[in-house]
Amino acid sequence: MHLALMCRNASLYSHRRLVEAAEARGHEIEVVDHLRCYINITSLRPSVRYQGRNLPNYDAVIPRIGASVTFYGSAVLRQFEVMGVYPLNESVAISRSRDKLRSMQLLARKGVGLPVTVFAHRTSQAEEVIDLVGGAPVVIKLLEGTQGIGVVLGETQKAAESIIQAFGGVNTNILVQEFIKEAGGEDIRCLVVGGRVVASMKRKGKEGDFRSNLHRGGSAAAVKITPAERSTALSAAKAMGLNVCGVDMLRSNHGPVVMEVNSSPGLEGVENATGVDVASEIIEFLEKNAKPNKTKTRGQG
After folding, report:
1. DSSP bridge pairs for 30
2. Is the CB of residue 159 less than 8 Å from the CB of residue 136?
3. Which of 146, 159, 242, 287 ranks highest by number of CB atoms within 10 Å?
4. What is the dotted CATH code of the domain comprising 182-285?
5. Cβ neighbours of residue 188 under 8 Å, at least 6 residues apart?
6. Residue 154's beta-bridge partner residues?
7. Which CATH architecture has domain 2-95?
8. pTM, 2 dp
9. What is the DSSP letter of 253?
């Protein structure tokens, strides 16, 4: 197959592994920086222009779009879809997963376990918002935050009210969630590929930090997940419409609850922790599924 890897930094571990896995299986793969692409929008011959040439109609494209450039990256991916190129993850699904509020509403509609969550904007009713999620401690998140940035724990009623009021002063949208104390600063990430959980790891935050992100100094180890956790991960991926994703869950007293569905999950932590060749699993999925014009939405929506 002739593949394209949409990414900004080809030297990142995840991107190197995807290139290595594709080439090891006999495929040709080209790295394309989506921010340097131009879209030629025409009715009869739509194209993507890159480095002075029109890009070919690849057999498949692997989107690795950073959160800060979701809009432009999704537009380029959507153009490939219009051209009939098969996407590993569709542009509509990526846009859904990147919108924290929209993704939680979709998960809730499908009955996927979630922490109690309230959405607010510049609220002067901080006390009421905190009461709605069951009282302090609560987790307060900026809607646009990633990798644990913009996530704060309000340990007491007064502290939580002060944080909510401070965020309100900068004209931003926030999510306020119940704090799952029994998780003990640990979460589980399941890597879903083509309707299967291919690898799972347990992440633990560094001492004194309730956030378990590896980028924030957390640690990871392989973990055996329960049937309920496997079912939750697969339901979350299906609700988003993602073929490949990382589903982050907490173990609560009332079962697994989903914190986030990541459409461009990092491979380094999970491959090192579990020994699973996730990159090859992704390429194998493309081998079995990539066909022209197979995209469900064909760039719509």
Report:
1. 4
2. yes
3. 242
4. 3.30.470.20
5. 200, 201, 202, 203, 223, 225, 229, 248, 249, 250, 251, 256
6. 138
7. 3-Layer(aba) Sandwich (3.40)
8. 0.89
9. T
Cα separation of 122 and 101, whole Å? 16
2-6/28-32 β-pairing? parallel
> 293, 299 in Cβ contact below 8 A?
no
pLDDT of residue 301: 47
Instruction: Show the tokens assigned to 270.
Output: 């999970």
Query: Six-digit token pair at 146?
Result: 């990633």
Instruction: Check if the beta carbon of residue 269 is closer than 8 Å to that of residue 203.
Output: yes
C-alpha distances out from residue 61 to 27, 55, 91, Å: 13, 11, 11
The pLDDT, as a whole number, for residue 213 is 56
Residue 203 has, within 13 A of its CA and on its CB side, a CA count of 25
β-sheet bridge partners, residue 204: 186, 219
Q: How far is it, in rounded angstroms, from Cα 150 to Cα 152?
A: 6
Domain ranges of the chain: 2-95, 117-179, 182-285
Greatest alpha-carbon pair distance for the chain in Å reads 61
Q: Which residue has the tokens 């459409």?
A: 263
Amino acid at 176: V
pLDDT value of position 174: 87
CA angle 192, 28, 270 (to 5 degrees): 25
* DSSP helix/strand/coil, 3: strand
Count Cβ neighbours within 10 Å for each residue of 110-126 and write b for 16 or more, e otherwise.
Answer: eebbbbebbebeebeeb
Contact 129, 141 (CB under 8 A): no
Question: Please, are residues 229 and 160 in contact by the beta-carbon 8 Å criterion?
Answer: no
Enumerate residue ranges in the chain where pLDDT < 50.
298-301
Question: Please, are residues 152 and 140 in contact by the beta-carbon 8 Å criterion?
Answer: yes
Give every CB contact of residue 36 below 8 A, 6+ residues apart in sequence. Answer: 50, 51
We find that the CATH architecture of domain 117-179 is 2-Layer Sandwich (3.30)
